[in-house]
Amino acid sequence: MNTNRPCGCKGYRTCLNCETEFSIPSTGEEPKLNTTKVVYCPYCNLCYPGKDANSYKSHPNHSGKPLRYEGIYIQEDFLDDLEHDRLIENLDLMPWDLSQSGRRKQNFGPKCNFKGRKLRLGDFKGFPSFTKFVQDKFRQVPILQDFQTIEQCSLEYDPERGASIDPHVDDCWVWGERIVTVNLLSDSVLLMTPNQYPKKYNLDLVKSYPKTVGNRVASNVSDMLDIEKIQDEIVLVPMPKKSLLVMYGSARYDYEHRILRDDIVERRVCLAYREFTPIFLQGGDCFEDGRVITDKAKEFFDIIS
Q: Which of 55, 163, 246, 304 is the most exposed place for a label (fewest CB within 10 A)?
């Protein structure tokens, strides 16, 4: 149904509201793929066979053959309880905009045309000051010490709307290697499937970029042992409440990621952070355009209630 709808969905994307009102088949269900599932364990940085992302909690008593999956870093309890609760309270003092597939959003960043490769400042004026402490905490994480946020997006997933997000790779013309998520309110799962569309998402540019992050973040068991890499498996990546997730490298570019409707059982909010590609940094072809936005991205503003 290629129409805009009052719920915020358009094109082939749907939520529970428009599926009921317009009798549209659901697009938020699990993909029917003939491949095995493995679960990423943030404690040993390896994957093990499993159907439920919560199976990582059995660590160190995993079963099955371990596999190495490059490009995921998870820090549990990145926020403490007080930080988490104050952040949610302040986010909910701000208006939420309708988005597709049952989501709502609050977006702070430049205007991007990914297909046309056009970028402009738009009405971007920086980020809400009550979120500044999150970016400050990034400096305490070795993989993020030089991370300059260019876009910050709050996304709300509500099971009453059947919220989900379709499989995708974040655009590679504007957004750099590290994709950062801070998970709030409830546990969730990121489902990773091998990318079948190497010509989409401006992926053709990636080969010209220097690596921001090495193949591994820190020494762990997968460094010390000759462990086979993931091939074509579906990877379930847990996103515990209050955790930090950084996606980079192979996980960032070789896999599409999505969130299934069935994995949203309580209200979930996340803060998603993105950085520039080298094109917009010093020495890049679009440095002058990028500098204006980078300067604005260092500003924070107070919310007037």
A: 304
